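Student: Send me a single protein entry containing the residue sequence and its fold in token form, directly below this note:

Tutor:
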Amino acid sequence: MARPEKTAAVAEIVESFNDSAGAVLTEYRGLTVKQLQDLRRSLGENAHYAVVKNTLAKIAATEVGIEGFDDLLTGPTAIAFINGDVVEAAKGLRDFAKANPALVIKGGVLDGKSLDASEIAKLADLESREVLLGKLAGGMLASLSQAVYLLNAPLAQVARLAGALETKATEDPSILAGGAGTPAAPAAEDAPVEEAPAGPDAEATDEAADQAAESTDA
């Protein structure tokens, strides 16, 4: 490979490392062209699967500060540069390797740290980001709904009781003053009579107010 072409190839691998969240090194010896195409399709948007030359990959890894790759870069090598969900990409590679034993997962890198094959397998066993976020969101919503219920129910009762007491205090100011209650003056004949609100909530409100009035009378 001519020097300009080599430099360009290394720069491309360096760019792939820098733009990805992680990378998984594989050996694809024995896989057909069709199988490689199927693997790329199975990874979808989560990873870009590229065949690389070991010498160029070593240079690129050194340039981006990745250590521990030299021992992994043996035999026909292809790297899955992960652009999407790291866990989903690891799952895709693991499942494909189970169905196609010719694909060997040798290790990888995540957040600048080298991973061996067993660590990639553990990564693949994790739940996906969407599932974890869904569980987290569900737990948060459940906790929030419980908190809202526990806080709102007493507040609503207090608000109804306060409204009822305010109405009773308007009719008999001595309730708030701690008096025994003075009979209210008879209303003028031509004064409009205001009907009490109907319904179970209104009855409960009047009952709560009456109880409060009785407690102040006592």
In short: The radius of gyration is 37 Å. Residues 19 and 173 are 75 Å apart (CA to CA). The first strand starts at residue 22 and ends at 27.
